[in-house]
Write a structure and sequence with these properties.
Layout lengths: L1 H20 L18 E9 L10 H10 L4 E4 L17 H13 L2 E8 L8 E4 L12 H10 L3 E4 L15 H8 L5 E6 L2 E2 L1 H10 L2 E5 L6 H4 L10 E6 L4 H9 L3 E5 L2 E4 L1 H11 E3 L3 E5 L3 E8 L5 E5 L6 E2 L3 E4 L4 E8 L6 E17 L2 E14 L1
Parallel strand pairs: 1-2, 2-3, 5-6, 6-8, 11-19, 13-20
Antiparallel strand pairs: 1-9, 3-4, 4-5, 6-7, 9-10, 10-11, 12-14, 14-18, 15-17, 15-19, 16-18, 19-20
The structure holds zinc ion (2 copies).
Length: about 375
């Protein structure tokens, strides 16, 4: 009894601590996109604003939101030219400093960033992993990008189609200058709800790293209706671990993809292992009698609905031409043998295209489902 009395204040502190962060019980959702061999798939948003530029929320609210939203890392990227603003006093480091303790407590990687804001050309650029935001010149984009390079920052071109007719990006001489001088290494192919297929093409052709970010200014819950599966655009970073150094290393190697409203966009070297770790054939070995059928059970372990199309050139069997497997569900797919299928055991490689895994601007990813069929004549 005495022991309990003595320890009540301590226990109270223990129980109260988590609630100092949140006004009520808080829940983090886990984003259902699997890791790939040798790498974790980190869910990152490298473009976020707070009241320290033209955003509408306080920095700690951004951290709270990001944790609940299943993010592993975010970067606060206040506009360079609007700091300090006339309503919120603070230097260019203030939003980061306010957010950092809470990010550390929640295990969220917080990256120090800034948005170098200039009209087109060359438009807006985010600099990540900067050291001293006070050294940036808001009036001269060349000096600002040179400063980012001097500080060892990682720089990407934001929303390249923004304010252009039909949101189709235009590549100006300034962009040739910036990328050829190594002043930027990446590009947003998705910003907020806009996907720029041409920017994706440029990234593939010029070996530029892909980004997809929310550029959120509002509160997350006002902009995204999570109850109907709506989510912010995010950059998937394939990193050896969840840390700032591992994220930086992965960005330097171009190990990214983009998750945007049911689409996964990126290079096949990352999308194929992502698909393979998402799809599990429960019964990979089936028996078919004559020209009978078998029910293949294919489970989707990810949250991304898989939209599959089969190739029409298959002579030994038939299979539905379009197969949709919602996130977290198992599809029963009818595989029917034709008269052409010989008797015996066959390892069938069923060619398919994953329509919503984009490995080119409008190009789905080719995959093969491997099934063993014991065909009894
Ligand atoms: Zn911008
Ligand atoms: Zn922005």
């Amino acid at each position: 009894m005495d022991y309990m009395k003595r320890n009540i204040p301590c226990l109270l502190i223990l129980f109260l601590l988590p609630f100092t962060l949140f006004s009520q019980n808080a829940y983090r959702k886990e984003i259902g996109i699997p890791d790939i061999p040798g790498h974790r798939t980190l869910k990152c948003d490298f473009h976020v604003h707070t009241v320290f530029s033209d955003g509408l929320v306080w920095p700690t609210v951004r951290v709270d939101e990001a944790w609940r939203d299943g993010m592993d890392a975010i970067a606060l990227t206040e506009h360079l030219e609007s700091q300090p603003n006339e309503d919120v006093i603070g230097n260019r480091s203030r939003s980061y400093e306010l957010a950092k303790p809470m990010a550390d407590e929640l295990g969220l990687v917080l990256i120090r960033g800034i948005e170098i804001t200039h009209s087109m050309p060359p438009g807006h650029f985010n600099a990540l992993f900067i050291k001293d935001p006070e050294k940036f010149d808001p009036n001269d984009w060349r000096k600002a990008l040179e400063e980012a390079k001097a500080q060892g920052a990682y720089v990407f071109w934001n929303h390249p189609g923004w304010l252009q007719p039909d949101e189709i990006p235009i590549w100006y001489d300034e962009h040739t200058e910036i990328f050829s001088k190594g002043l930027a290494q990446g590009m947003e192919i998705v910003n907020e709800r806009s996907y720029y297929p041409l920017a994706f093409r440029w990234c593939l052709e010029k070996n530029i790293t892909l980004f997809g970010n929310s550029d959120i200014h509002n509160s997350l819950t006002l902009d995204y209706e999570e109850w109907r599966g709506d989510h912010r655009a995010m950059t998937l970073v394939f990193a050896t671990e969840k840390s700032p150094d591992a994220i930086r290393e992965a960005l330097d190697m171009g190990h990214t993809a983009v998750y945007h409203t049911g689409l996964i966009i990126g290079k096949k070297e990352f999308l194929l292992p992502l698909f393979n770790n998402s799809i599990h054939i429960i019964n990979p070995s089936v028996t078919i009698q004559g020209n009978g059928r078998a029910l293949l059970q294919v489970q989707n372990l990810s949250e991304v609905t898989m939209v599959l199309e089969t190739s029409p050139i298959i002579s030994w069997f038939t299979i539905p031409q379009k197969i949709i497997i919602p996130g977290g569900k198992t599809a029963g797919i009818i595989l029917q043998a034709t008269k052409e299928m010989p008797g015996g055991v066959h390892d069938l490689k069923i060619p398919m295209v994953v329509k919503n895994f984009l490995v080119g601007p409008e190009e789905g990813m080719e995959v093969e489902l491997v099934v063993r069929v014991n065909h009894l004549l």
